[in-house]
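Quick one, tokens below:
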């Protein structure tokens, strides 16, 4: 293989740039040419494709977002859209594609592979919702952003003796909520994977209040309910003064953490190794600090789960 392409697709995540850099540098190291596809699958269909050099990825390892831009593209879900993409890749003489993104992006990559066009997926999403890898690129940075924000909220929560309901991202996964809840000592963590007894949440709040706690933090994963609705229920059940914070897209931005940069560099480079070995239709990941690869369909058929030991621990520490 002499020419490969790289694109970022779906929700952006801090560390995607470090992954692009790794793909480009590792491929050039092996004597290949690399082409950047801008705006995800939409750019692929439109032929928004440019050759990348060593210098194209200089000074981006520390930047959030993605220099290749990202997009969502409904047309690519159709046979015609996929064929248009393949036609563009063939026109440019590109023989394989590395797709950095989440599960939706991987489905697109699998479709191309099934049509005879080799693709490798690199998991880039803050949600950490992809089975087959312990961590996805961007999760650690988003977690640190949330922790930083909650530390600030704590100061004002204590001063005014308030209960804060904080909504965090994660789509259908509770990882960001669980990890940030543990990192921030939240009283309650509401995640989609576990049924939370509302009465238990209220009891814990009252217990804390009775023993003189000056503030309480409840973290709600966006996949369960909105912080506004949850706070309404808390207000109805208690006379505690309650406030809501929705952290929103701040969680997606910012300079990637050192962990995310290292992870992105390892996964991006490994994807190039695999494509050179002739592998296709798989995603790279990290399990127990070892680089691994799995068939995309096999991974997408698995159900994402949270770490139950961590969930139990969060309950034990917030008695
Ligand atoms: P993420 O990759 O972050 O999960 P999306 O689910 O929005 O984000 O998917 C990103 C893009 O991947 C979509 O806009 C679409 O172009 C492509 N995609 C998603 N699902 C499929 C599918 N089943 N077949 C082909 N392409 C898909």
């Amino acid at each position: 293989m002499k020419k490969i392409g790289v694109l970022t697709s779906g929700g952006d995540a801090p560390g995607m740039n470090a992954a692009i850099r790794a793909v480009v540098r590792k491929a050039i190291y092996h004597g290949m040419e690399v082409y950047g596809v801008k705006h995800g699958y939409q750019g692929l269909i439109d032929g928004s494709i440019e050759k990348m050099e060593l210098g194209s990825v200089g000074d981006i390892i520390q930047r959030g977002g993605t220099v290749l831009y990202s997009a969502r593209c409904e047309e690519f879900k159709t046979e015609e859209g996929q064929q248009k993409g393949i036609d563009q890749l063939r026109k440019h003489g590109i023989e394989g594609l590395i797709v950095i993104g989440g599960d939706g992006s991987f489905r697109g990559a699998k479709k191309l592979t099934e049509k005879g066009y080799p693709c490798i997926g690199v998991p880039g999403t803050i949600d950490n919702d992809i089975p087959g890898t312990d961590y996805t690129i961007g999760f650690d940075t988003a977690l640190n952003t949330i922790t930083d924000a909650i530390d600030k909220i704590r100061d004002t929560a204590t001063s005014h003796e308030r209960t804060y309901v904080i909504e965090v991202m994660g789509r259908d996964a509770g990882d960001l909520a669980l990890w940030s809840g543990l990192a921030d000592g939240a009283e309650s963590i509401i995640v989609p994977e576990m049924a939370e007894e509302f009465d238990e949440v209220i009891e814990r709040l009252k217990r804390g209040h009775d023993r003189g706690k000056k503030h309480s933090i409840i973290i709600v994963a966006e996949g369960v309910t909105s912080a506004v609705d949850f706070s309404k229920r808390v207000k109805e059940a208690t006379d505690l003064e309650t406030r809501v914070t929705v952290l929103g897209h701040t969680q997606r931005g910012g300079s990637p953490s050192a962990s995310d940069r290292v992870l992105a560099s390892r996964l991006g480079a490994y994807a190039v190794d695999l494509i050179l070995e002739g592998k296709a239709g798989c995603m790279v990941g990290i399990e127990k600090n070892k680089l691994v690869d799995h068939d995309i369909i096999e991974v997408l058929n698995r159900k994402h789960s949270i770490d139950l030991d961590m969930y139990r621990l969060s309950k034990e520490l917030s008695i």
